[in-house]
Amino acid sequence: MSILYPVSEKLSLTAALEPRKRTILCIPGTLISPRIFEAYAGPKGFQLAAVSWMTESGPWDIEGVASKILALIDRLELPEVFLVGHSAGGAICLSVALRRKLAGLVLSNTGANTATHGDPNYPQRILVSWDETMRRAQIRRCFVRMPPTESLQMLDEYADRCPRDGVFAAATSLRRLDFAPSLAQIDCPVLLAFGRLDPVRTERDVEALRSGIAEASIAMLDAGHTPMMEASHDWNSAVNSWISSIDSLKHRPC
Question: Is residue 100 within 8 Å of 70, Cβ to Cβ?
C-alpha cells in the first residue's frame, strides 16, 4: 500500500481498482495516511484499496468527501462495497451509508457526533498554531502503543503534506454533524471494531452507535485510537471474520 494511484484530482488510492468487482474501501481519519491499513488483507474474492483524501484537492468537508466516494463507486460500477472507516473516516462512511446501499460498514474509533470529543477547540488551534509541532502531537495522540520509528516517520510525512485548509474544513464539518438521529436509517450490517484503550473515542461512542444501528456487531480490541496498526492481527481477524460471515449468510441457499 505504499504507492498512491490517482483516480481523479480529488482522490488517490493505495491500489488500482478494477470496475464491476467486489470491493473493500478503507478510509483513514483526518491527517492520517491510508497506510495505517497497510497490514490489512481482505478476504478472498474482494479487491482492496485505502483512500487518500486529505492530500488531494477539496472539498475536504465530511459530506464533500462522501460525495467523492460515491462518485468513485458509480464511475467504477462497483456492485458490492464494504467501507472501512477510521476516526473521521468513519463519519465519511456513515455519510455514504445514509445515501447508498452498501454491503457493510466497519467503523473503528469514530462516533455519531463529537459531543464527547476531547478537543472542542481543535479547529481554532489549526488556524492559530498550524506547525510541525502541532501535527506531530496529533499523530501521537492517535496511539496508546507507539508504532516503530519508521512508521511514525511515514505518518508524520503524510501529515506534513495535508493542507491546513483541508484539515480545518474536515475538523469544522465533523463538529457540525450529528448522525445520531439518522443511525436507524443505516440498512446494512455494521461492525464496530474499536480500540478499547482510546481516550478520545470511548465505549460511550460504541454504545451510542450500537444502540442506534439496527444490525451492529462489536469487537473490542486492546489498542488505542488506531487499532488497525496497534493490534493489527486482532483487528484483521475480527474484520475478515465478520465480512466472511456476512458474505456466507448472503449466499446461503434458501
Answer: yes
